[in-house]
Design a protein that fits this description.
The complex is a heterodimer.
Chain A: H1 8-21, E1 39-50, E2 56-58, E3 62-63, H2 64-72, H3 80-97, H4 106-126, E4 133-142, E5 161-165, E6 169-170
Antiparallel strand pairs in A: 1-2, 1-3, 1-4, 4-5, 4-6
Chain B: H1 2-13, H2 20-42, H3 47-67, H4 72-76, H5 84-94, H6 106-125, H7 129-146, H8 153-165, H9 176-188, H10 197-234, H11 237-240, H12 244-249, H13 258-266, H14 268-288, H15 294-311, H16 315-325, H17 331-348, H18 360-363, H19 365-371, H20 387-391
Helix pairs in contact in B: 3-6, 3-8, 3-16, 3-19, 6-7, 7-8, 8-16, 10-14, 14-15, 15-16
Classes of the chains: A alpha+beta, B mainly alpha.
Chain lengths: 176, 393
């Protein structure tokens, strides 16, 4: 019953089922289902700090997803840190927040912290220098459907992109 | 059970002619029950499959630990972006506990990591298997819960199997335990019973019942996995129109060999047929298990999983699935394989043949399950979240 979609039986017995299943026997086999992802997320981050003379400085964007993709490329056994970490942090963030960037639940706040920490750790590992705030930009690139006839399914430039800027977040302990 | 036996005795002394046919039926039912009971309590099933699961999952987790060694702090350590504080907060909510949560000290983490490597290796080799299998399950659960937002379907399956394997007699074949038993039996002639005979029987029957039930649970688990994975896909529009694999092949993070993925993507006919086959096989999987058709379906699934491992860069996930499929192969099949392996090994090592080399095939289980042609559905990882999230919307 645990793997079945919500139905009248599982709704009635959900507590009993969960008591047996969670947390150890939790499972979810929606592998590439019901549909595989049809977008690639390009997540970038930039940092900001207040310099000594009081002006604020903003760094250039760093493409975190490209770092992941290049770690995966030509790897026989890609790391979970490249394939799953940022990807799942972002999907979980979206799942908890929707289109709104305010965290309305504990879980949402936790996912926000997680995402922020990942970005801050990556930036701190990537370059030197301090920063107090960090901002993420997420470009969602739709994978074009296969070309009819199948001669060439290469994206022909007419790709729809969607860009979302997250608010600046304070980073207290990272990147110093 | 006691009732069955009591009723069987008086039945023989009675001589009524009228209900004799009825009695015959009853007798047959009772015999059936009796032999079912004997099978359940006396004959452990699929000991070789259990050994392959042990060796396979031990090998996979060891490979994961070693592969992620450079990233160990980032994934499971105190320096992880999923901080110990966040992890503790989530554990309070989900009830998941982890030995890694006991201390934030980097030293403690390194010790746990070393312990995990050692225990996993011993479990893979089948050393004191009952104890190491429990330790292995605790370790897998601990690492899983610490990095729950980094896991995928492969990790999920590994955790479930580690838990089920504790209950099986997975150390009886192809293990250091089996080797020790053999050597002891050879040197002492007969095994000296250390426990009273009565206790020995109870113990043997208990472990056999547990083993048989656990193997059944594992088989049901794998069948459910495929069945539900297939049924979820049936609802997807991309799987319906045969383009699902096109999207899969274009995901940046699951494209370690972009040229290869692109080449595959050009074969639209192949993409469509393979997509439909994947769904069909998965949905049908629970139903073919009871027939010889499984010997056709399992190699197909093996092929698909090998493609997933290479094309999508998901060897860990695919490996977990391939090992799981081994549960459906009989002891006869594995002994046949072992025979082939032994013969090949003997002819290759003919020069330096010795008594000890006969043990070798056992410890090389991972190579064996690779050769055996058992695999399953394709897929990647889309396990959504952690406990609370998945089950309570």
């Amino acid at each position: 019953m645990h793997v079945a979609p919500p139905n009248s039986i599982s709704k009635r017995y959900t507590e009993k089922i969960d008591a047996w299943v969670l947390p150890l026997f939790e499972q979810n086999w929606q592998l590439f289902a019901p549909n595989p992802e049809s977008v690639n997320q390009q997540i970038s981050a930039r940092t900001g700090r207040i310099s000594k003379n009081g002006t604020s400085e903003v760094s250039r964007w760093v493409d975190l997803s490209a770092m992941d993709a290049s770690a995966v490329r030509h790897s026989v056994f890609p790391s979970h840190t490249a394939q799953n970490m940022l990807r799942r942090a972002w999907t979980s963030y979206v799942q908890e927040h929707g289109g709104d960037d305010r965290s309305h639940s504990d879980r949402a706040r936790m996912m926000k912290e997680y995402l922020r920490n990942i970005a801050a750790n990556r930036i701190a590992g990537d370059r030197h220098g301090t920063f107090d705030t960090i901002q993420l930009r997420v470009v969602t690139k739709r994978i074009p459907p296969p070309a009819p006839g199948g001669s060439d399914s290469r994206p022909n430039g007419r790709v729809s992109h969607e860009t979302r800027y997250l608010p600046w977040w304070k980073v207290a302990t990272h990147g110093r | 059970m006691a009732g069955e036996q009591r009723s069987r005795v008086p039945h023989q002394s009675r001589q009524d002619a009228a209900p004799s046919r009825l009695r015959g039926v009853r007798q047959r039912v009772l015999d059936g029950l009796g032999s079912a009971r004997a099978a359940l309590t006396e004959r452990p099933v699929s000991l070789y499959a259990a050994a392959v699961l042990r060796g396979g999952y031990g090998f996979l987790f060891l490979a994961l630990l070693l592969r992620e060694f450079p990233h160990r702090d980032e994934m499971w350590g105190p320096g992880s972006a999923w901080t110990p504080a966040l992890s503790a907060e989530l554990s309070d909510e989900t009830g998941f506990s982890s030995i890694l949560a006991l201390s934030d000290s980097p030293l403690y983490f390194e010790a746990c990591y070393a312990l995990a490597v050692v225990v996993t290796a011993l479990f893979m080799l089948g050393w004191r298997t009952r104890a190491t299998s429990v330790a292995f399950a605790v370790i897998v659960a601990s690492f899983h819960s610490r990095a729950i937002f980094m896991t995928d379907g492969g990790d999920n399956l590994l955790l479930l199997m580690a838990l089920y394997l504790c209950l099986t007699a997975c150390g009886r074949r192809w293990s250091l335990d089996a080797r020790r038993t053999r050597l002891r039996a050879a040197s002492a002639g007969t095994k000296s019973p250390r426990v009273p005979a009565q206790l020995g029987i109870v113990r043997r029957q208990t472990t056999t019942v547990l083993h048989n039930c656990a193997m059944f649970v594992i088989a049901v688990q794998v069948a459910f996995l495929y069945g539900s994975a297939g049924l979820y896909k049936v609802q997807g529009s991309f799987w319906n129109d045969g383009t699902a694999l096109h999207y899969v092949l274009n995901l940046d993070l699951f494209r370690p060999w972009p040229a290869l993925s692109h080449m595959m993507d050009q074969q639209t006919m192949f993409i469509a047929i393979a997509g439909y086959m994947a769904v069909l096989i998965q949905v049908g999987f629970p139903f073919v298990l009871f027939s010889k058709a499984k010997y056709v379906v399992l190699p197909m699934l093996l092929g698909m999983h090998l493609m997933i491992a290479v094309l999508l860069g998901l060897p860990f996930f695919s490996g977990a699935m391939i090992v799981a499929d081994a549960v459906f192969l009989s002891d006869g099949f594995f002994t046949f394989l072992a025979g082939l392996w032994g013969r090949a090994g003997r002819s290759a090592l003919a020069s330096r043949q010795s008594g000890a080399s006969a043990e070798l095939p056992g410890s090389v289980v991972p190579a064996q399950y690779r050769a055996d042609g058992v695999t399953v559905g394709p897929e990647s990882s889309a396990v959504r979240g952690t406990s609370g999230q998945v089950s309570s919307p």
